[in-house]
Amino acid sequence: MRLTSFGPANSIARTPETHPLTWRLREDGAPVWLEEYQAKDGYAAARKALTELAPDAIVQEVKDSGLKGRGGAGFPTGVKWGLMPKDESLDIRYLLCNADEMEPNTWKDRLLMEQLPHLLVEGMLISARALKAYRGYIFLRGEYVDAAANLRRAVEEAKAAGLLGKNILGSGFDFELFVHTGAGRYICGEETALINSLEGRRANPRSKPPFPAAVGVWGKPTCVNNVETLCNVPGIVAGGVDWYKSLAREGSEDMGTKLMGFSGKVKNPGVWELPFGITAQELFEDYAGGMRDGFKLKCWQPGGAGTGFLLPEHLSAQMYAGGIGKVGTRMGTGLALAVDDSVNMVSLLRNMEEFFARESCGWCTPCRDGLPWSVKLLRSLEKGEGQQGDLDTLLQLVNFLGPGKTFCAHAPGAVEPLGSAIKYFREEFEAGVRKAPSEPRPTASATVI
Predict the structure, then answer these.
(1) Up-side HSE of residue 166: CA atoms within 13 Å toward CB?
(2) What is the tens place of the pLDDT at every residue in 269-327?
(3) What's the mean pLDDT in 394-406?
(4) Contact (CB, 8 A) for 5 and 272
(5) Backbone dihedral angles phi then psi of residue 135, each to the nearest 5 degrees
(6) Could you give the 3-state DSSP secondary structure of residue 291?
(7) What's this protein's function (predicted)?
């Protein structure tokens, strides 16, 4: 699949005023290097931030813009920045970019890193200035080989141009930036597991509090932001708060634009920069082109494998956190999956839960033991060897692994699609129960400790 941000023939042209993330993209998909990036107003926002704005003013502008994290959690970015300590004596601070994009069916950050690496470098430079961080790391999944090469070249180009290093643009601000490739673990998408991995430790999530803003990497104040989140910062600084807010559709509580996409057996799979508040129907039909000939939409996920399934009638929902929340799940990463009518939901969920079980760090019992248990039951149902009570056990596991009952959000995200699939397609799971009478399996305990 080609990574693209180009929409349908009748879509509006991509301009700096409407597409702050993607207007610089080349038609041929080649990376935009420093000379071309600067010719397209690249680093103008960084120059403004470093020479005209105080760090606190940048934080306030990002807070006023309503920018929220684009990695899936949606926490307000300016609020997160404001948690960093005010004590000027704490001069060692870190900015980490979470580029460990391992959510199945999500590739939006890859588009930015491969084709617009300088946008991320500029976003991190401005953000580091706001946070008074002297060093930054891009924590990148090891499988993104092209992204790693392009980011490293962009960093070197920025260093040679005096845009990284000592006394940047004569501002007196110093900032070093490094690209760090991980060994490939989904759990590293959790910010404290990422920090542990960067330190050379096992990628287990940490207990919070203390939060990274107080005690982060190597015990120092640290802020962790997603790739797409950081790439929004130059546009906000350059265009202002009012302009940024105006990009979203009426009714959306989220501001700005978002990289959204559709994959599966659609006619035009891809990723596009679109305003928050666009309906899923528009995304599915106008951009993804609807289902391929001979296939019918059975259900869809709005934002990665860790979000719940929705039915075709839910396509009327607006694509923002609250809009998707109204129909029963989360927006997540905004990269949707179309499931066609040839797919058996038991097999699909068995595949998903195998991934989540394998990627569990094993730190807490519900996740470590509960996810493999769900896989075992789903394998039996897929083979038609399930027993009476298996669906009840699966639903109990969905409950026991839900939000607030595990050490981090890995398990709740893993079981959300399972619960929704049983809700909407229970008959497919029941079809896997063996018809001949047999001794029922023990069910999960009804007591949560």
Answers:
(1) 0
(2) 999 999 999 999 999 999 999 999 999 999 999 999 999 999 999 999 999 999 999 99
(3) 93
(4) yes
(5) -145, 145
(6) strand
(7) NDH-1 shuttles electrons from NADH, via FMN and iron-sulfur (Fe-S) centers, to quinones in the respiratory chain.
**Residue appearing with tokens 């588009």:** 111
Do 359 and 186 touch, CB atoms closer than 8 A? yes
397: three-class secondary structure by DSSP: helix
Question: If pLDDT is split at 50, 70 and 90, which confidence band does 11 have?
Answer: low
Is 235 in the same domain as 307? no
How far apart CA 391 and CA 281 sit, in angstroms, is 32
In the chain, how many domains are there? 3
71: its two tokens = 């990695």
| Helix, coil or strand: residue 409 | coil
Please indicate, yes or no, if residue 179 is contained in any of the structural domains.
Answer: yes
Q: Is residue 440 part of a domain?
A: no
CA distance 339 to 337: 6
Which among 290, 257, 254, 252 is positioned nearest to 274, based on CA atoms?
A: 257
What is the C-alpha separation between 110 and 229, in angstroms, rounded?
A: 13
278 and 141 within one domain: no
Beta bridge partners, 336, equal 262
- Same domain, residue pair 43 and 190: yes
Give tens-digit pLDDT for 65-101.
999 999 888 899 999 999 998 877 777 999 999 999 9
Note whether 101 and 139 are within 8 A (CB). Answer: no
CATH number for position 143: 3.40.50.11540
- State whether 267 and 228 are in the same domain: no
Q: CA-CA distance, 67 to 234, in Å (whole number)?
A: 12
Q: Is residue 375 part of a domain?
A: yes
CA 256 to chain centre: 16
Q: Looking at residue 361, which CATH number applies to its domain?
A: 1.20.1440.230
Same domain, 122 and 270: no
Residue finishing a domain among 212, 246, 280: 246
Give the number of C-alpha atoms closer than 13 A to the C-alpha of residue 44, restricted to the C-beta side: 12
Residue 315: both structure tokens together: 């396509």
Q: Which of 13, 69, 354, 372 is nearest to 226 (CA)?
A: 69
Domain that includes residue 325, residue range: 257-340
**DSSP annotation of 412:** H
Which residues, other chains included, contact 197 with Cβ-Cβ below 8 Å and sequence gap of 6+? 139, 182, 183, 185, 188, 203
Edge-to-edge strands, sheet with 222-226: 176-181, 135-140, 94-99, 222-226
Whole-number Å distance between alpha carbons of 157 and 122: 12
137 inside domain: yes
